[in-house]
Write a structure and sequence with these properties.
The protein is mainly beta and about 950 residues long. About 15% of the residues lie in helices and about 35% in strands. Strands 1, 2, 3, 4, 5, 6 and 7 form a seven-stranded mixed sheet that branches. The longest helix is centred in the first third of the chain and has 19 residues. The protein starts with a helix and ends with a strand. It comes from Polluticaenibacter yanchengensis. This is M43 family zinc metalloprotease. One of its GO terms (molecular function) is metallopeptidase activity. Keywords: Disulfide bond, Hydrolase, Metal-binding, Metalloprotease, Protease, Signal, Zinc.
């Protein structure tokens, strides 16, 4: 029997290395159990002896009907712990599934073993076995049954995960030595990132493996599962747990599809089950599997194939829907084995307060969580979200127990700035004490308010601990979760403008054959194909919303002549597939995005530039249609690369084609694979970035001491960046775009070169700081800058940052007093490659801001010579006052020693101007002074 296992694992390895792709055969997730079992037995002969003995014992129990009763209706519960061996990613990412996903997966396998899961029919139905997440850990602390372990510091695991059929990854023993709960009381399930360096998102891969129970101690006992396959509806976990409770593959004893297993005694040969006919292993001598349910005559019995083997969860088919009564009998009797009987009676199924009662322990409910800054509440500039967490006393004690929350030394988050912690629901005068009522097991809750600011400060760690204030019942600090770590994730990052992103969707592990489903076929006159790419896989490839301007296919060139005409169409759709077990669905309308004539296929990437870029919203699926019309046909079609869509199941078809339809003919019926294969594609998207604000708008954001923030309008568009280098808290900062446009306006002059940009900003602060210094960066679009340059003839890099006392829209164009204007030298940059920035250090950052090169009139004129007013040599810097002295301007009469000033012209003084005669100076008037 064991030699049979070894031979099949060699065949399995051949399959893993194979990329051959023929009609109705396809790659899928594979089981690696037999290879691991064989390796274990070779290293531990005593385990092989125990395995053989238990099979003999089970055969006798079943033969003599002395095992567990099959008719008492008892449901046996097995406590499980799910160890998520992640690599440091946040919970909810591919390698670190959420608690909800794990709980839902456990619910699904229980539905399978109850015979009630969707699609199940026939067979045994109820298997009388359930799996429950453990409620107490090995130290008697309360647990969710989900244990997360960060293996991100192990480069071998990060790169390759755990090894099965290759040398890539940690050994199974090494992985399980990282974390293992007592296998007497817990069945350990390990959720891993990769097996043999493959994560299950494309190609052919081992999805998981498990060990048969043995009477000898096996520290490697447990199930390994790829995180990508740990989900509702996936066959892998129910299959592997079948192995864990002594169920074998129905084809056990066969190495290839032409070999029938021995079956003279159905209890001791094959899969040890009598109501599963002997069947061959459905793999060809070339290493190619046919995973469809076989029909017709079974050559091993000369009777028709039955669902008991072909639709069995323990088989290698995609039409699984049942376990058999014989499998149920073998599984239930395996519960009498020492390594499984202890699980039935394990206290791990019960919370610590239930019998057997544990000691009094206090633990947080959650060991680690991540929260992202978000503004579910906005109170002017204060934006925050409140989160609720819990801490648990597992059993009641004699008196009221009071603890006080605190922070561990590893905490990097700043209280009052990043968060506020309260146990009394009062964030103004928060408490940190929690009281557990006497004689009561209880969970008490507290809140953390996480502030959403506009500061780029990265992730901050908040590690909560606690101490006892009063402890009459001698409760102890638990060892399960004595510290609760909350990672506060920053939602702010350096804003980027529209960027080009180009990604492959799928893989280059296999190809459609030359006669089987080429998306473009030079051997036919007309052809049409349609494929749906799901939003999830586009996002997983690293694509975001924006305009698709390129689309491509990967191929090995075979054709020798070009295609006549190719048309590409696209549509967004909610349809995840085109065909679902008998039901056809197509997008209602599609947009022509490219038409190409006389195109020759090339090796590798065939990229088409879209004449009409197609907008993808980042959430909908995308349907892509190809059609062609060849004036001349060839003899051999090109080989296009394909991949398996892991997000769909058998019978759900995302790709269809016809080798006869023209572009203007709708699909009626179509050809398709029974597995969800589709062409590997290339998308080029000009992704939406952060846009620059060009409209009148408003923003309120808080700016504390020594902080830098990007300012976004209420439209979510970028206005400015403000850096505060002072130890001053400005409080709420209001930033408004008060004037918009791509042209220019007069400031204090109607001369074109002295005008300023239409777009102007006004900044005010809650707390004023006349001595403050801010670094201000304003963002302008290419269109705004081009408009300014065209109107003024001034190069953008020769401008200055212009500040006015009031908002610029409150002044009349061309009539801003010089005294209200301050000019700052600036530095210049670009944003997103085509747009522009201007940056300057400004004093007292409140006021209006615009950009230009205004020529300010001199505001102070000083007479320092001797003689006539009109002689420029008598004026400082040779600057003679204008005939009309404007508001904000000043004349100072300060003749030289022993000199005098003689006014010999008409001088008008406007309201708001100043005229000063210094003490003991001579001023003689021969002209006229007029006061307006």
């Amino acid at each position: 029997m064991i030699s049979g296992i070894l031979n099949k694992t060699k065949a399995l390895l051949f399959l893993l290395l194979s990329v051959l792709f023929v009609n109705r055969s396809y790659a899928q997730a594979l089981c690696g159990s037999e290879m691991m079992q064989e390796r274990l037995f070779e290293a531990n002969p005593q385990m092989l002896s125990a395995f053989n003995k238990q099979n003999t014992d089970l055969a006798n129990l079943i033969r003599n009907n002395r095992g567990i009763s099959l008719n008492d209706g008892a449901i046996y519960e097995i406590p499980v712990v799910v160890h998520v061996i992640h690599t440091g990613q946040p919970i909810g990412t591919l390698y670190n599934p959420t608690d909800e996903q794990i709980i839902e997966t456990i619910k699904y396998i229980n539905e399978v073993y109850a015979g009630t899961a969707a699609g199940m029919s026939g067979g045994a139905g109820e298997m009388n076995l359930r799996f429950v997440l453990a409620k107490r850990d090995p130290n008697c602390n309360p647990t969710s049954g989900i244990n997360r372990y960060n293996a991100g510091d192990n480069p071998t695991y990060v790169q390759s995960g755990v090894r099965n059929s290759t040398s890539s990854g940690l050994t199974d023993a090494t992985l399980k030595s990282l974390v293992r709960w007592n296998r007497t009381n817990y069945y350990n399930i390990y959720v891993v990132n990769k097996i043999d360096a493959k994560d299950g998102t494309s190609g052919t891969f081992v999805a998981g493996y498990a060990y048969y129970p043995t009477n000898a101690d096996n520290p490697q006992d447990g199930t390994i599962m790829l995180a990508s396959q740990f989900k509702r509806g996936d066959k892998t976990l129910p299959h592997e747990l079948g192995h864990a409770f002594n169920l074998a593959h129905p084809f056990s004893g066969s190495n290839v599809n032409t070999q029938c297993p021995a079956n003279t005694n159905c209890l001791t040969q094959g899969d040890y089950v009598c109501d599963t006919d002997p069947v061959s292993y459905n793999i060809s001598s070339a290493g190619v599997n046919d995973f469809s349910c076989r029909t017709g005559t079974n050559p091993c019995t000369q009777t028709p194939y039955t669902d008991n083997t072909e639709a069995n969860f323990m088989g290698y088919t995609t039409c699984y829907k049942l376990f058999t009564p014989g499998q149920r009998e073998r599984l239930l009797n395996s519960l009498s084995l020492a390594s499984r009987a202890s699980l039935i009676n394990s206290p791990a199924k019960y919370p610590p307060a239930s019998a057997p009662v544990c000691g009094a322990l206090v633990n947080f409910n959650i060991a680690q969580s991540s929260v992202t800054e978000s503004a579910t509440v906005i109170n002017s500039c204060v934006k925050y979200t409140d989160y609720t967490l819990g801490i648990n006393l597992n059993i009641g004690v004699s008196g009221a127990t009071v603890i006080q929350l605190g922070t561990d030394t590893s905490t990097r988050a700043i209280e009052g700035k990043d968060y506020i912690l309260t146990t009394n629901n009062n964030f103004e005068t928060p408490s940190k004490n929690i009281t557990f009522t006497a004689n009561k097991a209880d969970t008490q809750y507290f809140k953390i308010r996480v502030f959403d600011n506009s500061i780029i400060n990265g992730a901050r760690k908040l590690a909560l601990n606690f101490s006892f204030v009063s402890n009459p019942g001698n409760a102890a600090v638990g060892t399960a979760i004595p510290i609760s770590t909350i990672n506060i994730l920053d939602n702010d990052k350096e804003p980027l403008s529209n960027t080009v992103n180009e990604k492959m969707v799928g893989s280059l592990l296999t190809r459609f054959s030359s006669t089987n489903h080429p998306i473009l076929n030079i051997t036919t006159t007309n052809g049409k194909a349609i494929v749906i790419y799901r939003a999830e896989e586009l996002k997983a490839a690293g694509l975001s919303k924006g305009y698709i301007n390129k689309f491509g296919l990967y191929a090995t060139k075979v054709s020798t002549i070009p295609f006549g005409n190719i048309t590409i169409k696209m549509a967004t759709t909610s349809l995840p597939y085109l065909y679902n077990n008998g039901s056809y669905n197509f997008p209602s309308s599609m947009t022509t995005v490219a038409s190409v004539s006389n195109y020759s296929v090339v090796n590798n990437l065939n990229a088409f530039n879209l004449s009409t870029p197609f907008y993808w919203n980042g959430e909908s699926n995308i349907a892509v249609e190809f059609c062609y019309s060849n004036t001349t046909t060839g003899t051999s079609s090109d080989l296009f690369y394909a991949y398996l869509d892991e997000g769909t199941a058998s019978g759900q078809i995302p790709f269809a084609l016809s080798l006869s339809l023209s572009c203007n003919t709708d699909f009626g019926s179509f050809s398709y694979f029974s597995a969800p294969y589709k062409p590997t594609s290339y998308f080029g998207i000009v992704e939406d970035g952060i846009l620059i604000e060009t409209s009148v708008s408003n923003a309120n954001q808080a700016l504390a001491a020594q902080e830098e923030m990007f300012v976004f309008s209420n439209n979510g568009k970028l206005i400015a960046k403000i850096k505060n280098s002072d130890n001053f808290n400005y409080g709420c900062v209001n930033v408004q775009v008060v004037r918009s446009g791509n042209g220019v306006k007069g400031l204090n002059s109607s001369v074109a070169a002295e005008m300023v940009t239409d777009k102007s900003v006004f900044i005010s602060t809650q707390n004023s700081n006349p001595d403050g210094n801010l670094e201000l960066t304003l963002y302008y679009t290419k269109e705004e800058v081009d408009g300014y340059v065209a109107a003024t003839g001034v190069n953008w890099n020769n401008t200055r940052l212009v500040k006015t006392k009031q908002a610029i829209n409150t002044y009349s164009a061309g009539a801003v007093p010089n005294g209200d204007i301050t000019l700052y030298d600036a530095t210049y940059g670009t944003y997103g490659g085509t747009h522009y920035t201007i940056k300057a250090n400004v004093t007292n950052g409140t006021g209006g801001f615009t950009v230009g090169k205004p020529a300010l009139a001199v505001s102070v004129y000083e007479f320092t010579g001797n003689g006539n007013w009109s002689d420029a040599a008598n004026w400082k810097n040779n600057l003679v006052p204008p005939a009309i002295l404007a508001a904000g301007q000043t004349i100072i009469i300060n003749p030289s020693a022993n000199g005098k000033c003689v006014l010999n012209v008409l001088q008008t003084i406007a309201q708001g101007a100043q005229f000063t005669i210094m003490p003991n100076k001579i001023f003689e008037v021969n002209g006229d002074i007029k006061i307006n």
